[in-house]
Amino acid sequence: MSLNTTVKRQYHLVHQCSLSQKLALLKALIKKRKELNVLIVKTDESVELDGLTESENVTIMSDEEVAGESELKCDVLISYNLPQNAEDYLVRLACATQEALILLDTNEQKQLHAIERLLGRSLIQEIVPGFEPTKTLAEQKRELQNKKYGKTSKPFVKEVRNSYPKKDDKKPYNSSTSNSKRKPRVINVKSLKPE
Questions:
Q1: Which end of the chain lies in a sparser environment, N or C, as judged by fewer CB atoms within 10 Å?
Q2: Which of 13, 50, 20, 54 is nearest to 37 (CA)?
Q3: What pLDDT digit, counting tens, does each position of 11-30 carry?
Q4: What is the rounded CA–CA span in Å between residue 143 and residue 135?
Q5: Which tens digits make up the pLDDT trace of 133-158?
Q6: What gap in Å lies between CA 147 and CA 172, rounded to an integer?
Q7: What is the DSSP string of 8-39?
Q8: pTM confidence score
Q9: Rounded distance, CA 34 to CA 55, Å?
């Protein structure tokens, strides 16, 4: 599939955020772009964007609806979530004329990698002030892996058994000595000298 879009690289951005902040970030991005025609694309109809009403300049569509509209154009494309298939994102991107924004949480890191591979370049990632992820992407990814494999998110702490004898308050503890005295080792010096 050929990529025909007029979006310049510096206006094709990924905004990292926590999943719980996504909707608030979306509203903030729309508010800054009141004068522009904004298209919000989500993966399917079941994704609810509570509290976000479509106004004159905002249209909300699913990937299926966007694929059915061959002549659809918008000033700003905001991808609320990423599709499983990277080619579906290219269909979205073809609609944008000025800006393309992706709201990214940890769950979608794999899809972003596939999109970047298809585009042949990495996308600029930017954190919007006030919507910083509560955890870094690496921490969020680790937490997701722990949930997937049923591990707890507690840090790894090795328990050490106290197998050493208790220290004597009178003498400093030395692991090379024991309570019984050893006899000194005797070396026969004559056997070491050459004859």
A1: C
A2: 54
A3: 899 998 888 888 889 999 99
A4: 10
A5: 776 666 666 777 777 677 654 554 44
A6: 47
A7: -GGGEEEEE--GGGHHHHHHHHHHHTTTS-EE
A8: 0.66
A9: 10
Q: Is 30 within 8 Å of 58 (Cβ atoms)?
A: yes
Strands 38-42 and 12-16: unpaired
Query: Which pair of tokens denotes residue 71?
Result: 């002549």
Candidates 47, 43, 46, 124; CA nearest to 85 is: 43
For residue 1, give both structure tokens. 């599939």
Q: How far apart are CA 175 and CA 29, in angstroms?
A: 65
CA-CA distances (angstroms) from residue 134 to 21, 74, 106, 137? 10, 32, 12, 9
CB count in 10 Å sphere of residue 46: 7
As to burial, measured by CB atoms within 10 angstroms (0-12 exposed, 13-18 middle, 19+ buried), residue 11 is middle
* DSSP-derived 3-state class of residue 39: strand
Domains of the chain: 9-148 (3.40.50.300)
Structure tokens, 127: 């954190």
